[in-house]
Amino acid sequence: MRKNILFEKKTSGGTLRVVDTVLDDDAVSFLFVNDTYQSAMYLSEEKKYDLVFPYMRRFDYAFFVNPEIQNTFLIGGGGFAYPKFYVHTYENAEITVSEINTDVISVAFQYFGLHDLSEDETKRMHIVNEDGIEYLRESNKKFDLIINDAFTGKKEQRRDEESIQIIHDALNEKGIYIVNVPTALSGPFAKKGNAFRKLLQNHFKHTVLLATQEEKQPFEKQNVLMISSDSELL
Questions:
Q1: Contact residues for 231 (Cβ-Cβ < 8 A; gap 6+)
Q2: Which entry of 22, 157, 200, 215 is 20 to 30 Å from 224 by CA?
Q3: How far is Cα of residue 18 from the mean position of the Cα atoms in its chain?
Q4: Which residue has the higher pLDDT, 154 or 29?
């Protein structure tokens, strides 16, 4: 498989690398941090808003539960694949994206199509260059949906109990919290995920798990979405 490195830079959050390659016959740009996938974008015009990663496609579960979602907060921008999809798909909704690494934001504009958004889409996407939990702590804003997809390389960010409480307090009455958790559903590799699920259950009345990679066995690690709310989940 031929790979073309378009950008490489060492930053405080790790080494950023933008690579063009081919995935299942589609030209794709990948964003790496310390050699770990962080984001991806199809390069063809007809697929530029499509989501490459299966787990991101399952974020729409929140809209099945509550079709009236109007404002979303995303912790971890990366290549801004989901925010672009969001403002293109949900035409009356807004999204605020926190990305702590300034270089990642610059790369998203230069290589991942943020500059191609329409005027309306740009107005409905708000980018904040700071830690997402600190933003929620200081802003006192309320959201219908909060998604935590923040990683530095393979290291998960802001999965501690204090952060969960701040997120809970930043949700509206029927608010939903979605976390991308690399874990197995059962077996020895599920231990870390089970512990995090218990943390969520300490703060929310309802928590469900969604597996996002059908080809994986339950005992294999995959991207599992843990979804929590004080309202009933489907």
A1: 65, 66, 173, 174, 176, 205, 206
A2: 22
A3: 18
A4: 29
